[in-house]
Write a structure and sequence with these properties.
alpha/beta, 8 helices, 28% helix, globular
Length: 259
């Protein structure tokens, strides 16, 4: 990718129980649902958020289904902006094409690639063959372990055997066209991005990449741009006013994107 590009704002729609929510990243658990910490539950429908992004021509955003009960909400969002949003959550080689047919621009895959938390190249090839490399995003959302990051799956509950590194990203990039990276340890906390991870991603990635986790100020877009040399885009969540936050105004981000 050219170093002359600048980091962009990428919108998101996180779905839980069919509603748009902002959730603290490490608290979503199948085993103990009571640990869930939610920063925001929208009164607007998922489709209304999709229509808002469409109105402002904010492309490259993602819809993430966090658990069951979200398919109808996701389809409504995709229908509100055909080819404008990516879809992730429970995607595998057998259902990926259905989501593209429902209006997704690309499908995002994580957990399917890691049976029993171990990376399967065969599964990556299968889903890439099913939809084509150009329509596939690999989600390398991760958690920090000492000075390294490892891909986390199953709503970020399980740490896999794949370290996020130059070598692993190079391997994955042979079969996909984009990366999505949630820094699960800082997701939803509004306490700042993982600057070291963003810097490393800027060094490692050769594909379009979106980072999410901890963004708390509009200046964080400049920070990500500087740290990644413009190679990594940024998603805002709980800090954003449309998600009940007080730190970042959606209209300001839109203005920056189009100025």
């Amino acid at each position: 990718m050219s170093s002359s590009r600048h980091s962009c704002f990428r919108p998101c729609i996180d779905l839980h129980d069919g509603q748009v929510k902002q959730i603290v990243g490490g608290t979503l658990s199948d085993a103990s649902p009571s640990t869930l910490k939610t920063n925001f539950v929208a009164s607007q429908s998922p489709a209304e958020f999709a229509e808002l992004y469409r109105k402002h021509a904010l492309k490259g955003g993602h819809v993430i289904k966090l658990g069951p009960g979200n398919d109808d909400a996701a389809r409504a969002a995709l229908a509100a902006w055909p080819s404008g949003l990516q879809i992730g959550g429970g995607i595998h080689d057998k259902n990926a094409q259905q989501w593209l047919d429902a209006g997704a621009s690309k499908v995002i895959v994580t957990s399917f690639l890691f049976p029993e938390a171990k990376f399967s190249l065969d599964r990556l090839k299968a889903v890439s063959d099913a939809v084509g490399k150009d329509r596939l995003v690999v989600d390398v959302s991760c958690r920090r372990r000492d000075a390294k990051w490892f891909v986390a799956m199953n709503k970020w509950q399980d740490i896999t055997d794949m370290e996020v590194s130059q070598a692993s990203l190079d391997l994955l990039s042979e079969y996909c066209s984009e990366f999505l990276v949630h820094a699960a340890d800082v997701e939803g906390l509004c306490q700042g991005i993982d600057e070291e991870l963003v810097s490393r991603l800027g060094e490692w990635v050769s594909l379009p990449t979106t980072y999410a986790g901890g963004a708390k100020a509009i200046e964080d877009l400049d920070l990500v741009d500087r740290l990644s040399n413009g190679r990594v885009d940024l998603t805002y969540g709980s800090a954003l006013d449309i998600f009940g936050g007080t730190l970042v105004k959606f209209e300001e981000l839109v203005h920056r994107e189009h100025s």
